[in-house]
Every structure is written in structure tokens, then in C-alpha cells.
Amino acid sequence: MVLPRHKLRGLSLLNVALIAVVLVVAVAAYLLFFRDESEAAGTTRPSVAVARGEVVASVSSSGTLQSSQSASPQFATSGTVTAVYVKVGQVVAKNAALARIDPAPAERQVRIAEQNQIAADNSVDAASESLDDAEQAAEDAEEASATPTTSPSTGETAGAGQGQTSSAGQSQDPAIAVTNAKASLARAKADKEQADQNLEAAQAAVAATTLRAPIASTITAVNGSVGSVAGSGSSGSSGSAGGGSGSGTASGATTSTSTSGFVDLADLKALQVVAAFPEADAIKIKAKQSATVTLNADPGTTLTATLVSVSPTPTTTNGVVSYSATFSLAKLPAGARIGQTANVAVQTAKAANALYVPSTAVVTSGTTHTVTLADGTSREVQVGVQGGSFTEIKSGLDEGEQVELLQGAVGATGAGQGRTGQFPAGQGGQLPGGFGQGGQGGGANRGR
């Protein structure tokens, strides 16, 4: 089959158009990839001068503001709540009355203990008199045995060791009588001591029917109400101060189910920061180290803090081990509240008047550290304090020498790919000592 001439002409034009499109795509691809690759090969890295100053290493974490003194006191004895004297937000003094339970059962125990104490006192008095009588009888017997007497009927002499004749006609050793009397007195005194302790406990139980604040603080929660059963066993307690727990409920009464104390309180004038650090960072921090704190609610304000303590026991969450650290604030910012998020940076090392370079200029392989000079040669250096942005150079470089930033290729705009870190403020975004053949501005050390 032979196509007409005008159709052949149309196919030829279509083929030419397709070939032209392919050529345009090929040229564009070449310019896009091969030219960029060629230009990239010719780019240079920015260089920076070795400078002198202070290098600081730190670790950071986030935590929350917490009160340095808090308590969740609970009634030490159980009973039905008859009064609640405080409300949330109220400021109370130490030992201020917070709430009260029915004191009638405890008062009844006091009256019983008082009667038992009186009876114990009487028992001691009686035992003491019996001992006096036994000791007197022993003395009389000893005197009688020491004086010989002659029996009128037999003429025999009675000497020592004959003993005494009791009213029942049986001889009783005076020494045994004294021993028995002493034992009776000892038992009576022990009973008296126990009765005294029982009375003190009963009186303490009456005092415990009024719940008091263990510290001067602010009420943060009231977990019970009038008519509920509170005290030992009705709810647990927690906090840096507070009461114990036990058991007991009353029939027909509403039972408190709070998992904390009857009242929660905290000193809002003494706040601290508590933050968790992963185990790799926790080994670098210790008490008395300096720290800085910023609050998410006020990121523009930097607070000075001191590390107070690091928990000796870890917490594991989703397989991650961390240790809790507590920081005291030098000054409490206005409007600070419990629970606010705080970011903490702990200074772990510092080198003053030291030579340093950006950390992105140092390549580490095992224990060997090297830098590349502006002329392309490598040099091994000894490093000291390694901060997030800068590394101390203890030997191997002189102040003013130019080193390259090696962490990623840098083009003419200075857009680096190094580790995250900002250069010292007040230099207009320039690297310390300026660039060599690099780009401009603070983006040079802002990595991904």
C-alpha cells in the first residue's frame, strides 16, 4: 500500500518536531546536571581564622517548674470529716488548722486511758507497800536469829536459820518473800508505764483529729469534704511532708477516694526546675554546676540557676534511661507558676582565653583530630573543651591561621551543611576572623 504524497509530507514534519523536542530535553538535562556538577567541583569552602576567647561546653534538657517545698498531709487517725477550714489558693501559716474529723471516739479513748492509769498508779502503791512489809519482816527475822534463846521446856538454844512461822503454821523464808514483793512491784510499774503511754497515745489521737499545715504554703488542692471519711486507709498521701495511712470507714458515710493527701499545699515562693537528662549527659553533670534557664512562657528572659542535686536512681521510659536533676533559681521571675515548661542548659566545662575554631572545622577519627588549612593541607591538632559550636585548640594551630569548614560543601552564598551552632553575636553574622573565599552571613554555620 502506497500513501499519498501529502500524507508522507505530514509524517516527515511530525518526525522533525519530535526530534527537535528530544534535542531540547537533552540539552536542558546536560546544562542542568553536568554544568552544575562542574560548577560544584570548582566551589571552595569558607575559611575562618583561629581566634582566642572563651569556649563553653554544655548539656541541655527540658523540665518543669516545681515547688521546692510541698506536702500532702493526711489525718493520722480515721474519722468522719466535720469541718474544712481552707480553700484552694489560700495562703496558710505553719501549723494552721486545715480540717477536722469527729473527735468523740478519740476523746472516749482518753477517758478510758485515764481510768487505766489511775488503776495502775494504785497497783504500784500497793506493791510498794507489800515490799516494805516484806523487807521489814526480813529485818525482824534476821535480828531474831542473831539473838540465841533457850526453850523453857527443852533447854535447847534456837540459833540462826530457824526461819519464821507463818499464821498458817508453815515456815516462810523472809528472803523469798522480799523477792516476790520486788517482782510484783516491777510488774506494777511496767503496767503503769504502759498505761501512761496509752494515755499519751489517746491524747495524741485527739490532737490528730485536727489536720494542720506542716509548712507555710499555699493550698493547691482540697481532696476531701465534710461528711467524707478521712484519715488512715481512706486515702493515700504524698509529698515532702504529710501524714501516714491506715484503714477505717463509717457505715453510710461517703468515703474519700483521693490518691493524695486530704489537702495538697506548696510553697509558691520557692520554685525550682526539675529536668531529666539522658544517661550520656547525666554523667557530665554534678551538684553546684552553673546553668541557665529559659521559660517557654517568657523565652526572651534568661534565668541563672545552680544544679542542686542529681537523682542517684534512674527512670526508664520507652527504653530510655534518664536521671532527674534539680536546679535552684537565683531569682524567681514575676508570674512564674508551677508546671511551666523550662529549658535548662548546664555548663559542664569552660576554657578561658583559649584558641578555638568552629566545631565544623574539626574532623575526628577515633582519638585523632585534624583540621584543613586554607591552602588545602591537613594538620593534626590537640583539642580541649568541645562545645556545641566551638572547639578549643590546645596545640597544632596558631592564632590567626585560616582553617576550612569541612562539614559539607559550601557554595558562593555560604549556605553550610555543618552541625547546628551559631557564631558569637556582635560580629554581624560573620565567622570569627572573617571568611577566606567563602560566602556571607550567619548562615555559614547553620547546619541541618
Summarize the structure.
The chain is of the alpha+beta class and 448 residues long.
Account of the protein in words:
This protein is of the alpha+beta class. Among the domains are: 51-62 and 270-445, Efflux pump adaptor protein, beta barrel domain (Elongation Factor Tu (Ef-tu), domain 3, Beta Barrel), CATH 2.40.30; 69-102 and 209-266, RNA polymerase II/Efflux pump adaptor protein, barrel-sandwich hybrid domain (OB fold (Dihydrolipoamide Acetyltransferase, E2P), Beta Barrel). Helix content is 26%, strand content 33%. The strands form six sheets. Strands 2-16-20-18-17-21 form a six-stranded antiparallel beta barrel. α2 packs antiparallel against α3. The two termini are 66 Å apart. The model is unreliable at 37-42, 157-169, 233-259 and 408-448 (pLDDT under 50).
